[in-house]
Amino acid sequence: MTSMKTSIDYWFTIEPYVFIGIAKEHVLLYNTLDGVILESDKAEVIELLQETLKEDNCGVVLLTNERYKQKEVKDFISKLREKYMGDIIDISLSNGKPVQLLPFYNFPEKHEIYKKHNFSSFKNVLKNLSKISIHIDSTTNIAKLISFLNSIPGTPSFNIVGNVSEAEQYDKLLSFLNEHPSPKDISCSYLNIIPLQPTFENNFSFQILVKLPIDMKQWNHSRQLLLNQALPVEYVFDISSDEHYLQVEQLVEKYRIEKYRLNPVYTGYNFRFFEENVFLTKEDILSTSMSIKDIFARQVMNIYDFGKINIMPNGDAYANLNYPVLGNIFNDNIYEIVQKEIDEGNSWLRIRNQAPCTDCVYQWLCPSPSIYEISIGRPNLCHVKK
Ligand code: SF4
């Protein structure tokens, strides 16, 4: 005699565009299509999602009727369906386990494998290079520098940092770059602006660094110099206090500065300023909409440093100036420098893989660690976890 089945079991699935962040006692689902989130601190829900994320399950698990009847699970699934983040399917209606392809980013254990595979499979690691910052001063050997830059394949952008006119034959460097199709930035203080036009006009732009208080005479002179050159300009204001912030506001308004950004500077004495103005809140993290690609990037690379190399006046090359030197452009070629960063470096692949971020649902939604974590000496600068 066969017994009649009265209860219905389901397949529980999560949509592939939903990112799941799991901590010990908290789970967060983030819909990358519309930025909507769903959270839970219920053990039954966390357990269900943990199972869903197991690589063998591929984003689909059997949800028995008994389990579905648990109030916490039922309530959660109801909200999940309302927000189009997941679904349940009567198993009698599907011919075997449905196939769901959750992207890699939902399988935490895959990151290391991906990283290794991704880099070792690149025939040419140089295709990762996106920006070369050239720090110059009076000791820079322009001829050797140009010879090195000439050996760099592709079209990474160039950023010349410092008082350009201090370097002997700096115009040779500018002429070389002028012929290069890459975008070029000159990052210098408003005290050291050099006239570029009409000689150099191909894809150059200025980043004007401003430390407060400003020297009014020099400031006015620099404004005039910039007005005479119709090149794109972005101001970067160093600020380390609320007072600085107010001063910048006044400058921006008075001089109708259209493009600018604030560069918070940690002095060792302004921790409170950072806590109040730089530390992230949950709302800050969720206020930026993120695509699957953005989340994936945060899992495998540092979004600030990846692809960038700094060359110092003595030829030393760094991925991030806070970490050990990778080589010297007078002895090492660009391939050796980049390969060293990929093999041994701390910058391009510096991600949020340290406590307390490893037990935080925002681990991969948060921006990568920045230079502030290094200068302040904390792995997390947020109000979410102490
Ligand atoms: S910094 Fe770390 S602990 Fe803070 S919210 Fe981001 S991931 Fe979580």
Task: Describe the overall structure.
It is a single chain. This protein folds into 2 domains: 10-102, Alpha-Beta Complex (Outer Surface Protein A, domain 3); 118-279 and 297-348, Alpha-Beta Barrel (TIM Barrel). The protein has helices at 43-53, 65-68, 71-82, 111-120, 142-150, 170-179, 216-228, 242-254, 271-277, 282-287, 292-300, 334-344, 371-376, and strands spanning 10-14, 18-23, 26-31, 37-40, 60-63, 86-90, 131-135, 157-161, 184-189, 204-210, 233-239, 260-264, 308-311, 316-318, 327-328. It is an alpha/beta fold. α5 (142-150) runs parallel beside α6. It starts with 9 loop residues before the first strand and ends in a 10-residue tail after the last helix. The strands form 3 sheets. Strands 12-11-10-9-8-7-13-14-15 form a 9-stranded mixed beta sheet, with helices on one face. Strands 5-1-6 form a 3-stranded antiparallel beta sheet.
